[in-house]
């Protein structure tokens, strides 16, 4: 009886400890996010939406993140498919190179891009001769976002292609379908959920990029000042504007999470 009582007491203590730990972690994650909404009134939020700093940053962020996703999908889809289907020599090295942007600190990524595409960079010096300036332009924002966000799509896309049953592709080829038709009609639809999930995560990562952008593209309103940069700048004098931008990013992030879960379930 005593051992049974001790066992029940131990189970109750473990359950209580787990509940406190779980609840404490939820509060730790939730309270800061909720605080953003509590610190700005609806009137101040609406007024901030008319602020050129907010609108410029919002439009620029959505446009550059959208362009980045398009570029990543265009370049990353064939790379992911090749890595998923062909065991070529050096594939491990390619995988490592793809993962480098995830490992690098954002500031280092921005500096690396500047050394490559800046006016006196390895490639930028030749572009400058042709009259093409990359650093501190909107193009630099897109390149920074592509650099840091592309691994999220490529890794997810590869996993999705690897999950496609190759026998279905072989059957389509046996029936006379060309490789391109097989890819478009069989492989892509079956991997679509993972591709959409990867694209959404890429969009979210591009939208939240800060370090590489400010190092490589600068912080110029209407040109290179994305939402994270605008939040950082507004914190120095306009708290309502920074809160409004932060709330918008939280809403978008929630939408991203919902979109990813929906894509995965499909």
UniProtKB/TrEMBL annotation:
Annotated InterPro entries: MetI-like (IPR000515), MetI-like_sf (IPR035906), ModB_ABC (IPR011867), NifC_ABC_porter (IPR006469), Sulph_transpt2 (IPR005667)
Annotated TM spans: 12-38, 58-84, 96-117, 123-148, 183-204, 243-264
One Pfam assignment: BPD_transp_1
Record localization: Cell membrane; Membrane
Gene3D superfamilies: MetI-like (1.10.3720.10)
CDD domains per UniProt: TM_PBP2
Keyword vocabulary terms for this entry: Membrane, Molybdenum, Sulfate transport, Transmembrane, Transmembrane helix, Transport
Chief location category: membrane
Topology of this chain in the membrane: Multi-pass membrane protein
Domain of life where this protein originates: Archaea
Family of this protein: Belongs to the binding-protein-dependent transport system permease family.
NCBIfam families: Mo_ABC_porter, modB_ABC
Identification of the protein by name: NifC-like ABC-type porter
């Amino acid at each position: 009886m005593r051992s049974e009582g001790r066992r029940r007491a131990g189970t109750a203590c473990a359950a209580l400890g787990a509940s406190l730990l779980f609840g404490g972690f939820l509060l730790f994650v939730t309270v800061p996010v909720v605080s953003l909404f509590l610190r700005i009134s609806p009137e101040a939020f609406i007024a901030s939406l008319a602020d050129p700093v907010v609108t410029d940053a919002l439009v620029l962020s959505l446009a550059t993140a959208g362009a980045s996703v398009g570029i990543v999908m265009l370049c990353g889809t064939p790379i992911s498919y090749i890595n998923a289907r062909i065991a070529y020599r050096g594939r491990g090295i390619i995988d490592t190179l793809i993962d480098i942007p995830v490992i690098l600190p954002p500031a280092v990524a921005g500096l690396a891009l500047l050394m490559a595409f800046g006016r006196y960079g390895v490639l930028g010096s030749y572009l400058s001769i042709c009259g093409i300036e990359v650093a501190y332009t909107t193009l630099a924002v897109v390149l920074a976002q592509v650099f840091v966000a592309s691994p999220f799509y490529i890794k997810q896309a590869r996993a999705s292609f690897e999950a496609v049953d190759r026998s279905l592709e072989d059957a389509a080829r046996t029936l006379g379908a060309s490789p391109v038709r097989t890819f478009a009609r069989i492989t892509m639809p079956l991997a679509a959920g993972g591709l959409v999930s990867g694209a959404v995560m890429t969009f979210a990562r591009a939208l939240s990029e800060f370090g590489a952008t400010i190092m490589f593209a600068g912080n110029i309103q209407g040109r290179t000042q994305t939402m994270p940069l605008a939040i950082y700048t507004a914190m120095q004098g306009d708290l309502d504007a920074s809160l409004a931008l932060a709330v918008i990013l939280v809403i978008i992030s929630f939408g991203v999470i919902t979109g990813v879960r929906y894509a995965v379930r499909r």
